[in-house]
Backbone:
């Protein structure tokens, strides 16, 4: 089953469990975010990927420049371990991390969570790729992905028991749009997925196809 098929199935099962007035808030917030043009502000194919240096779940400092020395990078942004759609997406990415490695690429995931939360999600899902903490969403802002939750939606998440104030290191309302980039060794973005809808994510098979296209590009620098 593909990732987005699994996400739609999960949405269908979860949707019915959420009270109608809460669904209305969530759906209205989603429409407003889509209408805001937030996705159009993100970096896109052909742009230079902003550099970063972020702590990993394992305690290392990892930067884009260093990663690109050994090959292309698949960079994915997710909201956090509290988001079931993110957990599902990360598990599917883990299933394809070997195929990405075979193509010389390194997968890296970024969220605004503190390192302890990154470590927890890494251990829970047995992730073998780097999970980085972008506390304050500085990197997400440079990629044009950061947005602030409405007070109404933030209250809904709080009522669900999602302590974003704690897990995001004091930056409770700022989250990244779901996004995935394939970045070439010269820091050029060659493929991009950005969506305001957190229930839709980059399909791993599309990422693999983008890496194959990148490898076949004449004249590009090889690992």
Residues:
């Amino acid at each position: 089953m593909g990732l987005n098929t699994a996400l739609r199935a999960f949405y269908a099962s979860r949707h019915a469990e959420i009270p109608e007035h809460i669904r209305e808030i969530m759906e209205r917030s989603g429409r407003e975010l889509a209408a805001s043009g937030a996705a159009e502000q993100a970096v896109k194919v052909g742009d230079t990927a902003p550099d970063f240096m972020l702590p990993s779940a394992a305690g290392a400092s990892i930067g884009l420049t260093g990663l690109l020395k050994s090959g292309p990078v698949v960079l994915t942004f997710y909201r956090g371990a509290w988001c079931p759609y993110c957990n599902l997406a990360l598990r599917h990415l883990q299933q394809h991390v070997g195929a990405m490695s075979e193509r010389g690429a390194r997968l890296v995931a970024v969220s605004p969570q503190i390192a302890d939360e990154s470590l927890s999600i890494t251990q829970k899902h047995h992730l073998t790729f780097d999970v980085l903490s972008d506390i304050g969403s500085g990197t997400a802002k440079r990629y044009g992905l950061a947005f602030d939750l409405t007070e109404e939606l933030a209250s809904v998440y709080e009522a669900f028991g999602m302590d974003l104030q704690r897990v995001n290191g004091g930056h409770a309302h700022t989250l990244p749009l779901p996004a995935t980039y394939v970045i070439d060794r010269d820091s050029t973005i060659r493929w991009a997925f950005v969506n305001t809808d957190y229930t839709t994510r980059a399909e791993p098979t599309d990422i693999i196809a983008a890496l194959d296209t990148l490898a076949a590009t004449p004249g590009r620098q090889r690992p």
